[in-house]
């Protein structure tokens, strides 16, 4: 259904197009304060530069619809920790016109296989904002379990939002 390719400058145009009508709230749900509307090439260059400065490795991927070859999304895997055999998923995004078709679930399942089978890690985690109920429900459907809540951890436009920590372990995934 999907394939992943390493995110690079050739993906900037698609990324910017996906976000052309994005509001500040849309971008905050997807990427915190990483981007501001309108998303520009300069913001994407800064995003990649920031990723390259991290202590623990980070990988950026573009999501491609397998049958058509169209670029339909983006995902970041961060804090890839070989010692503790863990990683985090961040910035999970499927473009609007591709939502509701199973691509989000396919993306997370692909990432689980990559993390557990290819990289041999033990734990995959993510945070989801309390107002992103659709995403939280999808993560639960693909096996993530809520571990806790960081209450009022993010301030956005005068409102505090909580962060739900969720994870899945290699032992919980069918081979």
UniProtKB/TrEMBL annotation:
Residues 2-166 form the N-acetyltransferase domain. InterPro entries: Acyl_CoA_acyltransferase (IPR016181), GNAT_dom (IPR000182). Keywords: Transferase. The lineage of its organism: Bacteria, Bacillati, Bacillota, Bacilli, Bacillales. GO terms for molecular function: acyltransferase activity, transferring groups other than amino-acyl groups. This is Protein N-acetyltransferase, RimJ/RimL family.
């Amino acid at each position: 259904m999907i394939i992943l390719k390493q995110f690079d400058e050739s993906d900037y145009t698609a990324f910017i197009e996906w976000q052309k009508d994005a509001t500040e709230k849309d971008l905050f749900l997807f990427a915190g304060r990483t981007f501001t509307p309108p998303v520009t090439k300069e913001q994407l260059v800064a995003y990649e530069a920031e990723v390259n400065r991290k202590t623990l490795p980070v990988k950026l991927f573009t999501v491609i619809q397998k049958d058509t070859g169209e670029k339909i999304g983006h995902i970041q895997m961060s804090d890839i920790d070989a010692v503790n055999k863990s990683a985090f998923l961040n910035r999970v995004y499927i473009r609007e016109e591709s939502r509701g078709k199973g691509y989000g679930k396919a993306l997370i399942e692909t990432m689980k296989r990559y993390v557990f089978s290819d990289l041999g890690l033990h734990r995959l985690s993510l945070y989801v904002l309390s107002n992103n109920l659709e995403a939280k429900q999808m993560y639960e459907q693909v096996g993530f379990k809520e571990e806790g809540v960081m209450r009022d951890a993010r301030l956005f436009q005068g409102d505090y939002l909580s962060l739900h920590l969720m994870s899945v372990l290699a032992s919980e995934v069918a081979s």
